[in-house]
Amino acid sequence: MENRIEHFLLSQKSARNGLTALMLTGIGALPLQALAAESAADDKPAPVQVIAPEVQPRTIKEADIDAEFFEVGGFAGLLSIDNFSTEPLIGVSAAFHATEDFFIQFNYGMAEAGLTSFEELSGSNVRLLSSSDRDFIYYDFLLGYNIFPGEIFFSDTLAFNSAFYLVGGVGNTEFGGENNFTTTFGTGFRVVLLDWLTVHVDFRDHMFKSDLIRESQLTHNIELSSGVTLFF
Questions:
Q1: Which pairing describes strands 158-175 and 61-63: parallel, antiparallel, or unpaired?
Q2: Domain 61-231 is in which class?
């Protein structure tokens, strides 16, 4: 009986000694695991520092169209009168800007036709028109549309609003003792120098039927002009 008790006590003591050794082994392994984790962290690449570029925004001064919708001014240029010569042209214009894209324009211009090639070849005794009948006077009402609004830059800090536009409409032309219903089409370019001042360059074709040279001839009278207008 005593041998059995002694054997049981010895086995319990061996189990306790084994458990104690296992605990000591686990505790000893903890510093090794910490060192391995620290070494792995040291092996990771350092984060890349992003350098933000120093961008300084430019301050651009641009002229805007004033809040008013009415525009008046004058223009001058050249008018090529069909079957006659190319002569100086002067006139006045007024416009109403109904929206940002559409406007209505009124133009009144005048020029004086020169001699035809037939008159020049025939000498001074042949004149198809009198001096008063050589006055070329027109007026028209046009509808305009801004097709390419944008900006034009003169320097890094100076810009002006600009726009290409199309115009078309009807009017009347007094020439050679006749009053002719006229259809006008053209294009133009506008630059807004100040909020109340603009500069225009215009190209127009004034078309009407005339009986001066031959019966029922459709004439094309080409205008190239430039002008200054004011907003109010």
A1: parallel
A2: mainly beta
